[in-house]
Amino acid sequence: MGKVEAIIKSEIIRLAKREMRRVATPLKKEVWALKSTVSQLRKTVFNLERFVSLQRKEWEKKPPLQAPPEEVETSRLSPKLIRSLRRRLGLSQRDLARLAGVTPLAVYQWESGVFKPAKEKKSVLVALRKLGRREAKKLLEEMKPEEKKKSPPPPEKAKRKTPKK
User: What pTM, to 2 d.p., does this model score?
Assistant: First the structure.
């Protein structure tokens, strides 16, 4: 009788395990998929929070120079005027580019007449008209510490391995 009981008991256990596996396997797959989704959502939220903080920092920065919109609309900026403004302030193209928030190439293109400054850059140039040399140099000095923070460290030169002969 002991053998029959043991066989029935082992069969019941086997069938119970099989039933549990049948129910638990789809649940495991769902749990795994949900964990994967939560992980992706965490990464997305982290990236979005980082983007928002960068945007907030940019938004909080007020432009150093701003002219009233009415004045910007009525002002005339020809390539010759931009060049003479830069020379009057004693600035290089690179310095003017730093003040305007553009590249030196953009300043060159403004001065050569290839492109005209966009509205917000035109506003900066109109505001620069009211400044003297000292104020322009002072603004440049104030901007330099900010640029040092932004610039990444210089890349290290890769050491070249020479093959042994």
Answer: 0.51
Cβ burial 56-65 (10 Å sphere, 16+ → b, else e): eeeeeeeeeb
> Given this model, what pLDDT does residue 164 score?
61
What residues have CB less than 8 Å from 98, skipping those under 6 apart? 140, 143, 147
* Whether residues 141 and 80 fall in one domain: yes
Q: What is the CATH number of the domain that holds 115?
A: 1.10.260.40
101 torsion bin: left (phi>0), alpha (psi -120 to 50), beta (else):
left
Considering the domain architecture, whether residues 92 and 141 belong to the same structural domain is answered as: yes
| Closest by Cα among 121, 123, 118 to 66 | 123
The pair of structure tokens assigned to 138 is: 């002072």
DSSP state of 56: H
- How many domains are contained in the chain? 2
pLDDT for residue 61 is more than 60: yes
Instruction: Confirm whether 80 is domain-assigned.
Output: yes
